[in-house]
Specification:
The protein is an alpha/beta fold. The protein folds into 2 domains: 326 residues, P-loop containing nucleotide triphosphate hydrolases (Rossmann fold, 3-Layer(aba) Sandwich); 250 residues, Dynamin, middle domain (Four Helix Bundle (Hemerythrin (Met), subunit A), Up-down Bundle), CATH 1.20.120.1240. Helix 1 crosses helix 9. Bound molecules: guanosine-5'-triphosphate. Guanosine-5'-triphosphate binds next to helix 2 and helix 7. It catalyses: GTP + H2O = GDP + phosphate + H(+). It comes from Theobroma cacao. Pfam families: Dynamin_M, Dynamin_N, GED.
Amino acid sequence: MATMESLIVTVNRIQRACTVLGDHGGDSALPTLWEALPSVVVVGGQSSGKSSVLESIVGRDFLPRGSGIVTRRPLVLQLHKTEQGVQEYGEFLHLPKKKFTDFAMVRKEIQDETDRVTGKSKQISPVPIHLSIYSPNVVNLTLIDLPGLTKVAVEGQPESIVNDIESMVRSYVEKPNCIILAITPANQDIATSDAMKLSREVDPTGERTFGVLTKLDLMDKGTNAVDVLEGRAYPLQHPWVGIVNRSQADINKNVDMIAARRREREFFATSPDYGHLASKMGSEYLAKLLSKHLESVIRARLPGITSLINKSIDELEAELSHLGRPVAVDAGAQLYTILELCRAFDRIFKEHLDGGRPGGDRIYGVFDHQLPAALRKLPFDRHLSLQNIRKVVSEADGYQPHLIAPEQGYRRLIDGALNYFRGPAEASVDAVHFLLKELVRRSIAETQELKRFPTLQAEIAGAANEALERFREDSKKTTLRLVDMESSYLTVDFFRKLPQEVEKSGNPTSLSADRYAEGHFRRIGSNVSSYVGMVSDTLRNTIPKAVVYCQVREAKQSLLDHFYTQVGKKEGKQLAQLLDEDPALMERRQQCAKRLELYKSARDEIDSVSWAR
Ligand SMILES: Nc1nc2c(ncn2[C@@H]2O[C@H](COP(=O)(O)OP(=O)(O)OP(=O)(O)O)[C@@H](O)[C@H]2O)c(=O)[nH]1
């Protein structure tokens, strides 16, 4: 069964994972775990004694000192209690494996690390520094030290710093999971203390606020803070704790922390004003109080945190699967990815043709409706008008009119008529071409995996359209050839089966008289017309066959064949160019992946301890 202590240890680990993986709250674009974790945040005006309180809780000098705004990044201070006799040391998250046993070096590292992010500009930054202290003299506790609230910027600092600090502090204390350690010096007006003002605003009922009065030893003679410490003057849900830190003179004299703690104990024990409160005063008591409270808050919040973690993991996984896997770096894997994407597109395109998706049926519409309609509309009436027949036949006869049947006239009339079939043949090819193009466009749009890669998307669309263009050329040649074939050799049987004029009339003299009369030409017209009708029936069947063979079948079988050959010849760099993702998307995937890693490690942390129920 886990002890209470392991709860704080668990949360400490999750907090560290948050910093490693870039979650310090305040980023609304990603779910944050940082903000859900309970923590103790130290707030107070400048010189209120924040650093002194922290050092006294730790029992060590380790915080930077100086004038102006010294704390310029949040310091997440994680205290880990160790066995008696084990050497104390500090360890920074940004310098893992380096144990600081000299606390003066800890102080220097905090300063250096602050400057590393903020520059020497004295700006502030919300990126926390994580410091763990392992010591037998601490209780398990996590405290976050923030820049002191201030009214004026000092030299070299931008005016905005006053507001920047306030918003940073506010962003911490606003969280409902934040336990506020409000530091107020006793020798100032408590009502106007920065810490109390802010905590009242964000926690009006005082349930999250621990009031700490520092500098009790500096109060004017004859005054005391008993009213406050006993909870009458400024009541909070938790008891006020009075503190006596080292004075500046003590610090200058290098009075060590252990001696200072002893002196603090003596101060309360011997004080006529506070003697009766002595067991509930001082920094050691404060540390224990906070540790106990933090544990109980964590315990209460844990179910909520667990469900938040699970929910966020689901959300992030869903988003990541939507964003797709990251692009591989080596050329082989890139080629594989490109081919996979092509295949995904090709699959959808085929589904459109084969009927899994809509659109393919419109091709049949061309054969069933458009082509027959176009054939019906051909102007054979005009071509085979009596007048034109007469003209064509006479011209074909030349100076010597035909004697029996106008062989040449027939041929010319038929040739002229067959020529008209070129139009519908070409139109069918074009109509199917545009339908195929439209299906390519739709298939590209429907290939979700391709959306990430606009360049590849455009290349595939280009290659597919080029291929369709080639198929169209071929199809045109083939269908026109069908028409030309009809002209090049006429169906002999048709004419042989025609009733002979001679037999019909049975009278050769009347035949010759009739030869240049209307009836004769009308018969020619009707013969040509039925021949052309027969060809039309044939072409209505053969043109679709040619179109499907040259365009539809080719599109299904080898739409991207050319493209595959081209891609196969490309070098690594060119392949990478095809897979150039939208940078915003890449960034987002990285962020989501990092955040997912955080949530998963947090889940593992929580799973690894079995909770005392
Ligand atoms: N006598 C006495 N002096 C104190 C006490 N607490 C703090 N001081 C002194 O007050 C000064 C400011 O204390 P710090 O702990 O540096 O205050 P701070 O809030 O961290 O200040 P900044 O980081 O500059 O905002 C130092 O000189 C301390 O020695 C106290 O309880 N008694």
